[in-house]
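A quick aside before the break. I want you to see a complete sequence-to-structure record at least once, exactly as it would be stored in a machine-readable document. Don't worry about memorizing anything.
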Amino acid sequence: MFKDEPAGSGTDKRLDDAGLPLANREEADINPDLLRREGFASEAEYLAYLATLGRDIPFEAYVVETVEVSEGPVLEARLRELREELENLRARLHVIRDQAATVVSENVRWADASAHAQLGDRPWLKLAGAMAAAFVVARGVRRLPLGTVTTTALPLIAAALNRKLAKA
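That is the input. The structure line, written in tokens, reads:
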């Protein structure tokens, strides 16, 4: 049996290109002119095949009318959207600035309340006095001849430790 030969006379079975019976009945209902599983023998056969395809598919179903749209309104709408977004961002920034100012003022209040709780009334005056006293003590310690004092005291300390260790 050849490719273009009819499958048989009087038989109900349809065969595919390989000569095998078709698996389901849906394939048997396909228009054999539209079913091509192999190449074309000539260009004329190819053009005839395309003509058969064109008959079954209406061209108007695939034609989409293009509507020309002016870009002016589109650009104006986009510009309006961007301006609204910019106003929204400015409002958010204003809220964030207010919140930051509130946080800073609350931190100052908390530090002041903490100082009052720890040092009582006039904590800043007490703190300034403590810093001044530390400065004066540091100046005085610098002026002491600690090198001489240490050199003199070290043998005395060592002798006292030796006496305690000897008694023990």
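Two observations worth writing down. The chain has a mean pLDDT of 77. The two ends are 126 Å apart (CA to CA). We'll return to this after the break.
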